[in-house]
Amino acid sequence: MSTITLIRHGQANTAAQDEVSYDRLSDLGTQQAAWLAVGFGAIAGHVFSFYLRFHGGKGVATSLGVLLGIFPYFTWPGLAALGVWVAVTLVSRYVSLGCICAAAGFVVFFALFNHARLGAIWPLGAFAAVMAALPILRHRGNIARRLAGTENRIGRKSAPPGGEQRPDAGA
User: Fold this and answer.
1) How far is Cα 45 from Cα 50, in angstroms, rounded to an integer?
2) pLDDT in tens, the chain (171 residues)
């Protein structure tokens, strides 16, 4: 059985006198599960809002807030995914494409930043995959419009009703 040792900082005692040991990983695992449940609840509440008859947003910004709060496992990969979103959105001028690339990139960044301990934190990896899949699934309409060439870009006026292309909308 493995032992996890936590040391409280900021007190005058020596480290040897100030150790608290946990003989069960489940003590900390329960806390992680609670944080993941709270994070998932925030995202689900945004995406499937009770007040909007279980319709809502795509969950990207809320997911980023959850990612930044689960330190360090999701924070650094979340910041890297934010960088992907900024870069892809600036280059393509499609917000939805930036969101999809950032969500997919988040899983890769999670694996890269946590490669040494992936076996021990597999529940976080599973949660990361679900968090990445949800915004991608919520962007299905955007993907269809992008393939049809009718998706709006930043800085361009909306496409006319009916999906017809404006003469200047080709890119």
Assistant:
1) 7
2) 444 444 455 555 444 444 444 444 455 578 778 889 999 999 999 999 988 888 888 989 999 999 998 888 999 999 999 999 999 999 999 999 999 999 999 999 999 999 998 888 888 999 999 999 999 999 999 999 999 999 999 988 765 666 555 555 544
The encoded tokens of residue 72 equal 């360090």
Burial 6-42 (b: 16+ CB within 10 A, else e): eeeeeeeeeeeeeeeeeeeeeeeeeebeeebeebbeb
* Distance separating alpha carbons of residues 92 and 98, to the nearest angstrom: 8
Instruction: Please name which of 148, 138, 141, 114 lies closest in space to residue 63, comparing C-alpha atoms.
Output: 138
pTM over 0.85, yes/no:
no
What one-character DSSP code corresponds to residue 162? G
Query: How far is residue 111's CA from residue 113's CA, in Å, rounded to a whole number?
Result: 6
Tokens linked to 28: 């900390």
Q: Are strands 4-7 and 19-22 parallel, antiparallel or unpaired?
A: antiparallel
Q: Are 92 and 86 in contact (CB under 8 A)?
A: no
- Beta strands per DSSP E along the chain: 4-7, 19-22
